[in-house]
Structure formats: structure tokens, C-alpha cells
């Protein structure tokens, strides 16, 4: 009797460990729904090997305890694949290693597998805990009745007291295991619902932001177009209004492009990029901004030879220009902007450092997140686009900053050629 209880207790720990591992591993590994069955199988196989190596299992305990609980668990919760693997594994282990009665095992587990798959597809998705318990105990009862009936029919005998102890452990463990696994699945469902709620909230915020950001330049454009329709307007004013209207349309178009780049960043024209040449080509664009803000620009190339990365030149320039403009705007009272490039055996590093207002630790953690910005009239979209484009071109971006001392942004790309 005592040995039966010990075996059942060890088996219960083995099953509950599998349940807990699935709860722990799934969120960390970001396992998709279609891969759940494979995860169940991997954990089941690894733990089964450990269990079989460490335990000397009684054949009847194996047949009436481990087989029905795990086969029903796999088939009902994870579908036909997990259930079929459990079914096949228990048939092989039961016959070749443990020594269970083969006919009773084949017939009982086959019926258990088919009913478990039927419950999985027909009822489980809308099943409450009480209904789940009822179906699980019904499956176990059918299996036990079939197995014990064939077992006695084949001429085997077992003490009723031992059978009662085994079955009591089976039913109690079934209730505990299915309750635990139900809670595991319920926890996963709540996590998925929370993720979807956050995703839809962000989509709503993006939509509202798009509407707000585009409305401003379009309103300006509409105003200038209306002014162009006034009678007796001179040619000079007409040209000025037309130029302002075009600027508003281009501004709106740039906002839409930024949103598209953030939503679905892609590289359409990938080719080798000369990093030094691209940085030097930006000087005419950033010099007027730096002069207006009394900012000194230093460009340091630690290696004289050209260094190349693979990407799209236009989007690479867009990333650098956004970062440089942010650095200049972070120094309203003037300062020094330093752009440094260096190369090691495998990577190219681009460092953009300013001596501006800097950021605290909380602000650093939120860099690249939707709608985060340190500017009064900013949207945070430019930096979101930069982070997305750097990643899609296979790079990594890191920020270091101290309040009042400035910010250092470093981008790393794989060296090409």
C-alpha cells in the first residue's frame, strides 16, 4: 500500500512539474498557439525520460494512474498531436519497460485518445471548470472500466484494496491536475487578452495622433489656398501663398511616410553603404541648423579607409538626420555635437554625442516607445522610426545619457565586405 502511494505521489509531482514548466516557458519563449502542442511534447518527453530513469514503477500504477491522466490531459487540452505522442509513448514504455497488460493498454488508451480529441474539438473551448472536471473524470472512468475489465478477462488478479487505493489516487490527482492546467490555460488567455487590449489601445492612439498631426498642415494649406482665391491679389503674394500651401502638403506627406515606416519598416533597395561618405554628405544639411544654434560640429573617423554596411542609403540618411536633429535641439543654448565612426573586425560603430540637457533613467527606458518625447511639441514618432529602421537593417541602437551633461547614441551595424 505504502509503495503505491509513494509511486502515485511521485507521478503527481512529475505531472504538475510539466504543467508549471509550460506556464513558465510559454510566455518567455513567446510560443505561438500552433506550437503549443510541440512544447507540451518536448516537456513531456524530457520529464518522462527523467521519471523512467529514476523510478521503478508498478505496472498497475503506471496503467491506471500515469497513462490515463497524461493521455487525457494531452488530448483534451493540446489536441490530437500531443495526445497521439502520449498514447504512443505510453504504449511503448508500458509494453517494453514497465510490463503492462498489452491488450488492455492498447484498447483503453485508444478509446481514451479518441474521446479526448473529440472533447478538445467539440466542447473544451467553451468549457467551464465544472464541465471540464466532469468530462475528465468521465474519460478516466471509461478508461478504467475498459482496462480493468480486459485485465480480469485475461486472467490477471489484483487485490481490491490495492485497486481502490490506486483508483482513489487517480481520481484525486485527475481533479488536481486538470484544475491546475485549467488555471494555467486561463492565465495564458488573460495574458493574451491583456496584450490585445494594449495593442488596440496603441492603434487607437496612433490613429488619433495621425489625425491630429495631419490636420494641422492641411488646415494651414487650406487657409493659404483660400487666400489665393481672393480678388486683386498680386503675383508676389500669390507665389508666397502657393509655396506655403505646398509646404503644408509636403509636411503632411512626410508625417504619413513616417507612420508607414514605423508601422511596417522595410528595406526596398538594399546595397553597400559607405558610412563615412554618407555622414560627410549630411554636413551641408546640418550646418545651417548648427550655426543658428551656435553649435560646434566635430566629425571623427577613427579609420581612414572607407567602411561599408548593407542597407538602403535613403533610410540610413533619414536615421542619422533624425538623430542629429534631436541632438541639436537638445542643446538650445549651444554646445558641441560629435559624430564618431570606428570599425572592428566585424562591426561598424556610429556614435552621436551632444552636450545638451540629457535625460534621466526613466526617460532613457522610454526611448523609442510610442508617443514618448522630451520636446514640447514633439510626437516621438521620429525616434520610433529610427529605432524601427535600424533594427530592420540589422543594426542595434543604444542610448546613454545624464541629466545636464548630454546624451550619447551609438549605432552598431555588421561590417560589409
Notes on the structure:
This protein is α+β, with helices and mostly antiparallel strands and 417 residues long. The chain has helices at residues 2-29, 36-54, 59-78, 80-98, 102-122, 129-153, 160-228, 235-263, 275-281, 283-292, 313-329, 361-365, 381-392, and strands at residues 271-274, 295-301, 308-311, 335-343, 347-353, 396-402, 406-414. It folds into two domains: 1-195, no CATH class; 271-414, Heat Shock Protein 90. Helices cover 67% and strands 11% of the residues. A five-stranded mixed sheet has the order 2-4-5-7-6, with helices on one face. A two-stranded antiparallel sheet has the order 1-3. Helix 1 packs parallel to helix 7 and helix 2 (36-54) packs parallel to helix 4. The longest helix is centred in the middle third of the chain and has 69 residues, at 160-228.
